[in-house]
Design goal:
alpha/beta; four-stranded parallel sheet; 16 helices; 3 domains; Isoleucyl-tRNA Synthetase, Domain 1; Rossmann fold; four-stranded antiparallel sheet
Length: 489
């Protein structure tokens, strides 16, 4: 079966057939976290989204170099060019070295990602480890005439760039509108225009994160790190650039401008943006103070949570919505995801116990094709999940002897579930849940053995008593021609 992947490209605003620059190889760059606090639910969506992209590309046979950065310098308060560095501020408040803050929260972020079963990227560079490359880019942009120095800081000249290119090509912003809305701010700081952005900032005396440069002791602008690191590890133009929709402007727009000046082309051919997770319709994030950390979800300790939610419940909750659709947090939605995930994973246990029939009443090949069609249509995970639940219906129907599958189709269905549930969606049984299932399985085998002995001895009273006691625990027992089966209702 031939698979052709179509992706919605933010740059063209259309779904495009995915054709990598180098046949069989894919370069993908994703903007990672700024590590100055614990990972929250909003951080999990881009991580899971691009983990899905990574997994599916590898499944299709591509060799993928996945680069996800860590921002550890230059990201100032309110995503602006003024104020305190977010990590330096945290370090000052906690009386730590900035790199202590970075290491501590990087470790915690990675721990949360491991729990969510997010695969590690191929390369995970830090902005502070690529200062030389960023200084070189600043010099290249200055030499090309698209930046200017002011009091030891260097700013990208957006208005001049827009005369030869288009600033706003990704976001759809029109510079003339920005000009008319911001002229009154001119002259109030060292920029020529308020929308010009820093590519190098002179450090104030109290600023503890600084490096020497031709212009001042300072630090690179936030937008510059991704341009420098993506070019170093993926080349001047690569296949996919991803991140949250909140980064579309100004971060990714500025990346395009910087790279266009330095390399005379846009950095990526396909731009993918996941939508936001919201709470009461408002973006969830640290700056708004309405976030819930992943550890709080896992422990159920936040006041907005009715209970604890497992990492796989969180992952499944995210995958139940298309990555470009908004996803609103609620306990009801999480509990629905929890129930759906449990039903999906229980069906795999049931599937492993099914016996083959002489005919197949369901078309498993057609179901497999529908699963691939969903993924090839811009990674439509909710449609994929709906198709997998059609597989669950078939499993339960075969288990109830209302339908049948040949051994070939049983094996095909097992392979389909293993491929899409575990390999592509990245779901897995929780370790505690898995251990609990093994205990339950062992106890049930023991109980059913007692019941079988009672039936063999025609002790119907004991047999019925065991059956009724299990029914009281919402465990149904069925005697079939292939043996005894049981299910948690």
């Amino acid at each position: 079966m031939e698979n052709t992947l179509f992706l919605y490209n933010t740059l063209s605003r259309t779904k495009e057939k995915f054709v990598p620059i180098h046949e069989g190889h894919v370069g993908m760059y994703v903007c990672g976290p700024t590590v100055y606090g614990d990972a929250h639910l909003g951080h999990s969506r881009p991580a899971v989204t691009f983990d899905l992209v990574f997994r599916y590309l590898k499944h299709l046979g591509f060799k993928v170099r996945y680069v996800r950065n860590i921002t550890d310098v230059g990201h100032l308060e309110n995503d602006a060019d003024e104020g305190e560095d977010k990590i330096a501020k945290k370090a000052r408040l906690e009386e730590l070295e900035p790199m202590e803050v970075v290491q501590y929260f990087s470790d915690r972020y990675h721990n949360s990602m491991d729990k969510l079963n997010v695969l590690k990227p191929s390369i995970e560079p830090r902005a502070s480890g690529h200062i030389i490359e960023q200084i070189q880019m600043v010099q290249t942009i200055l030499d090309a005439g698209f930046a200017y120095e002011s009091n030891g800081s260097v700013y990208f000249d957006v208005e001049k760039y827009n005369k030869e290119n288009r600033y706003g090509i990704l976001s759809g912003r029109i510079l003339e509108d920005l000009l008319s809305n911001t002229r009154e701010l001119e002259g109030q700081d060292e920029k020529r225009n308020s929308f010009d952005f820093a590519i190098w900032k002179k450090a104030q005396p109290e600023h503890i994160m600084r490096w020497p440069s031709p212009w001042s002791d300072g630090f690179p602008g936030w937008h510059l790190e991704c341009s420098a690191m993506s070019a170093k590890y993926l080349g001047e133009q690569f296949d996919i650039h991803g991140g949250g929709m909140d980064l579309l402007f100004p971060h990714h727009e500025s990346e395009i401008a910087q790279s266009t000046v330095c390399h005379h082309q846009t950095p990526a051919r396909y731009w993918l943006h996941n939508n936001m997770i919201t709470i009461n319709g408002q973006k969830m994030g640290k700056s708004l103070g309405n976030f819930i950390t992943l550890d709080e979800f896992f422990a159920g300790t936040h006041k907005a949570l009715e209970k604890a939610y497992s990492p796989m419940t969180i992952r499944f909750f995210i995958l139940m919505a298309h990555y470009r659709s908004p996803l609103d947090f609620s306990n009801e939605a999480l509990q629905a995801a929890e129930k759906g995930l449990s039903r999906l994973l229980k069906s795999i246990v049931t599937l492993s116990k099914l016996s083959a029939g002489s005919t197949s009443t369901s078309n498993i090949t057609e179901l497999e094709e529908k699963c691939y069609e969903a993924m090839n249509d811009d990674l439509n995970s909710p449609i994929l999940i709906a198709n997998l639940f059609e597989g669950v219906r078939i499993i339960n129907s075969v288990n109830d002897q209302k339908e049948s599958l040949t051994q070939v189709d049983l094996d095909k269905l097992k392979n389909l579930f293993n491929t899409f549930i575990f390999d592509i969606l990245g779901l897995m049984p929780e370790s505690d849940q898995q251990a609990g299932n093994e205990v339950i399985e062992g106890l049930m085998n023991l109980v059913l053995e007692f019941r079988a002995n009672a039936r063999a001895n025609k002790d119907w009273t004991t047999s019925d008593k065991i059956r009724d006691a299990l029914a009281g625990l919402k465990i149904s027992v069925k005697d079939t021609k292939n043996g005894v089966t049981w299910n948690l209702d």
